[in-house]
Structure formats: C-alpha cells, structure tokens
Amino acid sequence: MELSFPVIFGIMLVAIMLVGCVIGFYGEKALWNNGVSPYCKTAWQHFDHDSHGGRGYHCQCRGERHTLWLSWPVVWLNRRTRK
C-alpha cells in the first residue's frame, strides 16, 4: 500500500501538534515548580483567571513582580498527587 502525499502530510501535521502540546504542558509544569516561585522561593499567589480557563499567579520580591499564566491543568494535577 502506497501512502499519498496528503495522508503523509496529515500524519506529520498531527505529530507536530502533539509534540507542541507535550512541550507546552511540560514547560508550564516546570515554570509552576510545584507552586513555588523560582525567583522568590515563596508560593505563587493566585490573582486572576481569564475567560478561557487560564490562571494568573504572581510573586513579589525585591521590589519586582513576577507573573505566571498557566493554561494547562498542572496545578490541579499537583493538588491530586499531594494527598
């Protein structure tokens, strides 16, 4: 069976999207750092959420405010595994 160009292109496109999702999830998980800011070494403080489900967190140290927006459920996964 010979695969045509559109089939190969479609498979490659799906594979690229899946790799992008995995990179995005693990990137946000690393930034979340189990709820501890790598800048201040204190807990991230929730301050807002957007209409698409993204959550905003911030920390403030040495007069600087660091902001983190998460769109993947890494926070909820951490809460489930901590029990």
What would your notes on this structure say?
The chain is an alpha+beta fold and 83 residues long. It has helices at residues 5-32, 74-81; strands at 45-49, 55-61, 64-70. A three-stranded antiparallel β-sheet has the order 1-2-3, with helices on one face. The longest helix is centred in the first third of the chain and has 28 residues, at 5-32. The chain is elongated, with a radius of gyration of 18 Å. It starts with a helix and ends with a helix.
How would you summarize the topology of this molecule?
Layout: H1 5-32, E1 45-49, E2 55-61, E3 64-70, H2 74-81
Antiparallel strand pairs: 1-2, 2-3
- Mean pLDDT, all residues: 84
What composes the largest sheet? 3 strands, antiparallel
Q: Specify the number of helices.
A: 2
Order of helix and strand elements from N to C terminus: HEEEH
Give the number of DSSP strands.
3
Low-confidence stretches: none
Radius of gyration: 18 Å
Overall SS class: alpha+beta
Q: What is the beta-strand fraction?
A: 15-25%
**Through-space gap between termini:** 51 Å
What's the shape? elongated
How is the largest sheet built, in terms of strand order? 1-2-3
* Helix percentage range: 40-55%
